[in-house]
Amino acid sequence: MKIRALIALLALVLGARAQQASESRVRARDLGIQPGVLPTGKLNAITDVEGVKVGHVTLRIGDSVRTGVTAILPHDGNIFQRKVPAAVYAGNGFGKLIGSTQIDELGVIESPIVLTNTLSVWRAAEALAEYVLGQKGNENVRSVNVVVGETNDGTLNDIRGMHVQKSHVLEALAKAAGGAVEEGSVGAGTGTVAFGFKGGIGTSSRVAAVGAVNYTVGVLVQTNFGGVLSIDGLPVGKELNRHMFSGRNGDGSVMAVVATDAPLESRQLKRLAKRAMLGVARTGSPASNGSGEYAIAFSVATRTAFSDDAITPLFEATVEATEEAIYNSLFKATTTTGFGGTTIEALPIGAVKDLMRKHGYAAAQ
150, 183, 293, 324: which is the annotated catalytic residue? Predict the structure, then answer.
């Protein structure tokens, strides 16, 4: 009997791997979907902003644990000693963004940013505090404002089990690196659901000129929210009958982290963070009652901030990068089975291609 059970388990694992391998998951631009008018950075990722690093830890344990941690570092130095200007904007404050009030008050962040699931924010905060206090130069620090955001992945994850440990947070911080960012069902996006499809982590960037100088805006999102999905104008949710009015709850939350090398002060960064919500809205979200919509924006620049009259191009960059980051989170996510045997299907790329042709989307001709 034990041998039969082992064989059945092996078949299940191999079948899941085969399904994953058979799914050709791509980014939005691989299909010709290019929201907006501004060019992307080299990697089309938040790490196009010089010095920014991202690290993931993905937890897939047994048939019930589908969660993880994503860490974003503004730079690889001691962030407590070299704080960066920052701001937070809550489009809908149904969530637990640890550290937000001090950011509002002082206009800086002094720790990396960590994303995880709703019931793991406190353990993640404890780990992040240990990380900051343990850095060289912080031996006499007695207070630190750590920043931890969340979305609720309880549909696919045994969230009440609180499986994220401090070691996972520290591992994500240690893994943080520049370069290409893994997207989809990874890190803090392992168990998330967006628009009734498998959500996850997505990222994108834009380059915008302010005067004679080009600046980069990069966005990373953790998508776990709903609405009526629209992809660069394509009525995907409507035509596939997969939306908040077809029996799919629109609650959940989205976290957006906006990074830039443009010299902006905290007040201007809050204006940038607000524009991330416009990018969320473009994808079809009404910011439903139980969906926390948050954006954290920071600047890695050390130069003096420029005037408000100059920053409209950065607003457009933020909207476009947020929108595309959300699409990337959906396109790169994979079909996932988790807690209670629940299966959430990935956004069907073939169906999206069909809709592109049906609606005369230029890239599909």
Answer: 293
Count of domains in the chain? 1
Condensed to tens digits (0 to 9), the pLDDT of residues 45-80 reads 999 999 999 999 999 999 999 999 999 999 999 999
Residue 291 designated active-site: yes
In 3-state terms the chain splits into helix, strand, coil percentages (rounded to 5) of 35, 25, 40
Set 64, 100, 230, 253: catalytic member: 253
**Rounded distance, CA 349 to CA 357, Å?**
13
Domain of residue 344: give its range: 28-364
Angle at 301 between CA 69 and CA 85, to 5 degrees: 60
Q: Is pLDDT of 4 > 60?
A: no
Is residue 213 in a domain? Answer: yes
On the 0-12 / 13-18 / 19+ scale of CB atoms within 10 A, 20 is: middle
Q: Specify the residue for token string 């609405």.
A: 227
The catalytic residue among 204, 291, 299, 329 is: 291
Q: Residue 53: give its domain's CATH number.
A: 3.60.70.12
Tell me if residue 246 is catalytic: no
Residue 327 lies in a domain: yes
253 is catalytic: yes
